[in-house]
Design brief:
The complex is a heterodimer of chains A (719) and B (228). In chain A, strand 12 and strand 13 form a beta hairpin. By secondary structure, chain A is α+β, with helices and mostly antiparallel strands. A seven-stranded mixed beta sheet of chain A has the order 8-10-7-11-9-12-13. Chain B is α/β, with parallel strands linked by helices and 228 residues long. Chain B has one domain: Class I glutamine amidotransferase (GATase) domain (Rossmann fold, 3-Layer(aba) Sandwich). In chain B, 25% of the residues lie in helices and 26% in strands. In chain B, helix 1 links the parallel strand 1 and strand 2. The chains are: A alpha+beta (719), B alpha/beta (228). Chains A and B meet through helix 8 and helix 9 of A and helix 1 and strand 6 of B.
Chain lengths: 719, 228
């Protein structure tokens, strides 16, 4: 099979610019072959190389005594005591989900689960953060249905509980929805598997599903007119098979237990190319692959196609040769393909053989090590103009405006499509601030949350980035968990625009500052750029996924308020209305600055909640929607009314940070007041629970009526 | 007591069911679907939830033809106690161990929530566990849980006290709100809700625990006949 000639157009179609191509020539001292060009484009595209973001990602805190493995492997690994570790990561699958919502979202879930079990951890919890266009946009309904079904279809079948997440709607996502998928797994801290190969002449083994043409050029788009070997233009979106993934997980964990695995890497973006290079590069070895041995499900696939295919549910491993028979038996038990497709070699070469021909012979280290890195020009986001006058409104009308928006309505229509209890260890199901599971067989609990408020990030990237971390911190503290670490999924527009790059730089700064101050190192993550349509970018959306530990189940805060309980507000209220939910939902105004984040206060208040968990019956953090929405949600969960003394918009709907709403009986409230005095935190009685109404000052409405509005607003618009 | 839990490659509630069995005091063996024979001396067999073979077409249709299922049906035939939950219930119907079929939910969506059930029988171990008329709360999590059968079959099930559980607030469109049914001898139970997800206070409820306790008590009182 002859390969196309390398032309300027072909190079451009592979997403490589002139300097990048010149660098390839310099490295090789010759022109690349077509297959080699494909390999370079796969390794050097934004998605795989982080060429625009690397410089800034390096500034994030990634270490700490709790961190066993930070960014750079398939997922981050964090110590949870007793020789156990939690392994987690969040990743985007935005572009594929917009093109084909069901499969795009499904394979996003599949990819992140694979990242986790590749490290030797059995996945035990999943979350997702979804951003869609305006509810009334003609594409939104179909995207919501497809994405939610895709996530459920994959996760439910695989058998991992989906315990939390977020769903938002905003016109800035009309042309680019965001699907960020999180997964966490459990492993023994001394039984973590990494990707670095070791030993020369070791067999490189291909496991899992067969390779097809799906996803060829998923990470880089190859143009068909210059490429006669890709006769058909296949969709660049892969197709997920959760049943195969489930078997691949069981087989992989079973194989790991035999001691046969030296190193392992899942095949994600840029499939065979990326995984083989990664294993060789990290191990300081070369790799030779014989593509004739690769299990395929389509005929006459070229080397180019096989190296760039993104078929799902595949793994690459380096195995101990003496364990080959044992390994093969495990995979035959699970009816999965197992094939030796190459070996590790001593020289720094990546050699691809196909039908007796050498299709590629590249310096392996240079493929990842010499990937371009850019210091993209950026401009600081200008300070937001001050907020104009905000009229007073009847506060119940303000609450109604929030409850009738899909953004603040109950998300049960979404999360009831996800199995939240499989594995039988779920303690808190979705719909609260954080999802909680038990660490199987122990008395420890793990809490999970995913947070960001994109409006804030757009107005003030630095404050918005810090706020995303602070909100995640609060959601964990509110259930009694000690925040351990975080993963970031950074969704932005085109980084070649200085103002977008400025958003990215600002957000990273804010995230870094908050992670340092709150002792939540970033242990894994992903960057998704170019989320733009017709030049219009999404709201900058750096999603923070965070994990917290509750050492003993009795330290969990998960009760409901009761009639007669006191409503206490922890934290200072200044009445910050800039970029608030009320402004946006009531008047369509997205104005003013993001609320400032006082990281020392966040820490102090979070510590206070945990230290006094035994006195607190119910707790929730205050985020967008402020005190009014938090009080309503707590009342609704409890099935009892609430009366707050305040009636002014700033107190009820201001979005000052670092605050929690607490419900407890009178005696506990008194004790908390004493503790607050000692700890130097602001704690005030703001109302009480009871009755059948939600009452703000003199204004009131029946809880039953507001509850019905809250429950139906999302499904009424989108179901 | 010795219990076996059937494992298909796509089972994903197998560990959960094994744990609920152990909590009820049983020793548990996992039974791989490719085996043609059961280990001797089992008192109870459980067929767990999940997606046995991916279930991309008809849930449980491939699993029902697994070598092990022949042995499970034979075990039920000689009076053994068997419980099938969710996908396990689907597999039982496909294997002809119980009458009827489970169709796609009326709302066409996967449904995961905790529902209220009415115990509709005084027969068998469900009747022993709760007593007829009692209300219990158990989680459901399924895409294909709408129980359907012809009118004659439904009448017979009701007449013979073989409707074990009914939904209060039907989540899936099941005929006559049926959530679980018994075999003629009352020793084989198929149900969509997940009792194994409600055996421990941390899970948010313990209404499932009594069912497992009654199952093992019944199996001890009325063991299966020895194989011919």
């Amino acid at each position: 099979m002859s390969e196309p000639k390398i032309t300027e157009d072909l190079i451009a179609a592979h997403g490589l610019n002139e300097q990048e191509y010149a660098e390839i020539i310099r490295l090789l001292n010759r022109e690349p072959t077509f297959t080699e060009l494909g390999i370079f484009s796969a390794m050097w595209n934004e998605h795989c190389s982080y060429k625009s973001s690397k410089k800034w990602l390096r500034t994030l805190p990634t270490t700490g005594p709790q961190v066993i493995c930070g960014p750079g492997e398939n997922a981050g690994v964090v110590d949870i005591g007793d020789g156990q570790a939690v392994v987690f990561k969040m990743e985007s699958h935005n572009h594929p989900s917009y093109i084909e919502p069901y499969q795009g979202a499904a394979t996003g879930v599949g990819g992140i689960l694979r990242d986790v079990f590749t490290m030797g951890a059995r996945p035990v919890a999943a979350m997702n953060s979804l951003s869609f266009g305006a509810p009334e946009h003609p594409k939104t309904r179909q995207l919501v249905h497809g994405v939610v079904e895709g996530i459920g279809g994959y996760g439910n079948c695989f058998g991992v509980p989906t315990v939390g997440g977020e769903v938002r709607f905003h016109a800035a996502y009309n042309g680019n929805c965001l699907v960020n998928a999180f997964a966490a797994g459990l492993a023994d801290a001394d039984r973590i598997f990494y990707s670095a190969a070791s030993g020369v002449g070791m067999p490189v083994v291909y496991l899992g599903a067969r390779t097809g043409r799906d996803g060829v050029g998923g990470a880089t788009m190859a143009s068909a007119e210059f490429d006669d070997s890709i006769e058909e233009k296949r969709p660049t979106v892969q197709v997920g098979d959760p049943f195969t993934e489930k078997r691949l997980m069981e087989a992989t964990l079973e194989l790991m237990a035999t001691g046969a695995v030296i190193s392992i890497q899942d095949m994600g973006a840029a499939g065979l190319t990326c995984s083989a290079v990664e294993m060789g590069d990290k191990g300081g070895l070369g790799v030779r692959l014989d593509l004739d041995a690769v299990p395929v499900r389509e005929e006459n696939m070229s080397a180019y196609e096989m190296m760039l295919s993104e078929s799902q549910e595949r793994m690459l491993m380096v195995l101990r040769p003496d364990k080959e028979a044992e390994a093969r038996a495990v995979f035959e038990k699970w009816d999965l393909d197992f094939a030796i497709v190459g070996e590790t070699i001593a020289e720094d070469r990546f050699v691809i053989m196909h039908r007796g021909e050498c299709k590629a012979d590249l310096p392996l280290r240079a493929l990842s090590g010499s990937a371009p890195e850019y210091d993209r020009p950026w401009v600081e986001t200008p300070p937001a103009p001050p907020l104009g006058e905000v009229p007073e409104v009847d506060p119940i009308e303000g609450l109604r405006a929030l409850l009738s928006s899909p953004n603040y309505a109950s998300k049960h229509w979404v999360y009831e499509q996800y199995d939240s209890q499989v594995m039988a260890d779920t303690v808190l199901t979705p719909g609260r601030g954080a999802g909680v599971i038990r660490v199987h067989g122990t008395d420890k609990l793990l809490a999970f949350t995913a947070d960001v408020t994109p409006r804030y990030v757009k107005a003030n990237p630095r404050a918005g980035g810090a706020q995303a971390v602070a909100e995640a911190f609060r959601n964990l503290c509110a259930v009694g968990a000690r925040p351990l670490a975080a993963t970031d999924c950074l969704n932005f527009g085109n980084p070649e625009k200085p103002e977008i790059m400025g958003q990215f730089v600002g957000a990273i700064r804010g995230i870094g500052e908050a992670c340092r101050a709150l002792d939540m190192p970033i242990v894994s993550g992903n960057v998704s750029l170019y989320n733009e349509t017709d030049g219009a970018a999404i709201l900058p959306t750096p999603t923070i996924g965070a994990v917290g530990l509750i050492e003993r189940a009795d330290a969990l805060i998960a009760g409901n308020a009761r009639a007669g309980h006191v409503a206490l507000l922890l934290g200072e209220t200044a009445g910050h209305l800039g970029q608030s939910a009320l402004l946006a939902e009531m008047w369509g105004r997205e104005e003013g600055d993001a609320p400032p984040v006082d990281l020392a206060a966040e820490r102090r208040n979070g510590d206070f909640i945990r230290a006094n968990a035994a006195l607190i019956r119910a707790c929730t953090d205050l985020s967008d929607g402020g005190l009014a929405l938090a009080a309503f949600e707590m009342a609704e969960a409890a099935g009892t009314g609430v009366s707050l003394d305040a009636s002014d918009v700033a107190t009820l709907f201001g979005e000052d940070q670092g605050r929690y709403l607490i419900a407890c009986d009178f005696d506990a409230a008194e004790a908390l007041m004493v503790e607050a005095g000692k700890a130097g935190v602001a704690l005030a009685t703001v109302g009480r629970f009871g009755g059948a109404h939600v009452r703000f000052g003199a204004s009131a409405a029946p809880l039953s009526e507001l509850g019905a509005l809250w429950r139906d607003s999302l499904s009424r618009r989108l179901a | 007591m010795r219990a076996g839990v059937v494992v298909f490659p796509g089972s994903n509630c197998d560990r959960d069911l094994a744990r609920a069995f152990r909590r009820a005091g049983a020793r548990v063996e996992m039974l791989w679907h490719k085996e043609a024979a059961l280990p001797p001396g089992l008192d109870v067999i459980g067929i767990p939830g999940g997606f046995s073979f991916g279930d991309y077409l008809r849930c449980g249709a491939i699993a029902a033809r697994a070598p092990l299922m022949r042995a499970v049906a034979e075990y039920a035939g000689r009076g053994g106690h068997v419980i099938g939950i969710c996908n396990g219930f689907q597999v039982m119907l496909e294997a002809g161990m119980l009458p009827g079929a489970l169709m796609r939910n009326a709302g066409l969506k996967f449904v995961c929530r905790t529902v209220t059930l009415e115990v509709a029988t005084d027969r068998g171990f469900p009747g022993e566990a709760y007593g007829k008329g009692r209300e219990i709360r158990l989680p459901v999590a399924h895409h294909d849980g709408s129980y359907q059968a012809d009118g004659e079959t439904l009448d017979r099930l009701e007449g013979e006290g073989r409707v074990a559980f009914r939904y209060r607030g039907n989540p899936n469109g099941s005929a006559r709100n049926i959530a679980g049914i018994l075999s003629e001898n009352g020793r084989v139970l198929g149900m969509m809700p997940h009792p194994e997800r409600a055996v421990d206070p941390l899970q948010g409820g313990t209404d499932g625990a009594a069912l497992f306790a009654a199952l093992f008590a019944a199996a001890a009182a009325e063991p299966a006949l020895r194989p011919a």
